[in-house]
Amino acid sequence: MTLFPSWTEVNDCWPTIVGMRRTAAETKAVILAAARERFAADGYEKATIRSIAADAEIDPSMVMRYFGNKEALFGAAAEFDLELPDLTDVPVDSLGAVLATHFVERWERDEALLILLRVGVTNAAVAERMRTIFATQLGPVVVKATGNSSDAPVRAGLASSQVLGMALCRYVLAFPPLAGMSRQEVADWIGPTLQRYLTE
Question: pTM of the prediction?
Fold first, then answer.
């Protein structure tokens, strides 16, 4: 019985070992994916660096190396681009419908905003981050679309309340029949309200 593997055995498994090595970008992506799931499941307060590292099958020191602390990790995991469309050439009477369709599609394509929504209802810091995302991204779009900057924060805030309320009830609380509606049905219902908030 030999205590050490032969060179042939090492050579045979070397491709597997190399294949297991991740780049820094891949490691960060794995950590972020685990963090999103853990924050969504446990909330900000209960989620720990250790549990996230375990989910990612990585040493906790690596999480700290790439993100520093839990707050910074959460900020990265919850980074979210609303990817709002350019509404400049959209007819004014179609703004609500276009935004409603966009938001329903956007919610269902990326879980990061759902994580923010779940955690934000109980955590003040996360709620502030959500307010910042919507204010900084939706406000300028409203100004550009309507040409009016004086009441843009109010309009953006009201539009956000509609979109976030829909998302909370549809995706988090799963209120029937909202949870069972098609994307188009949801967009058709909230579109007129968004239209009123944006233009009337």
Answer: 0.72
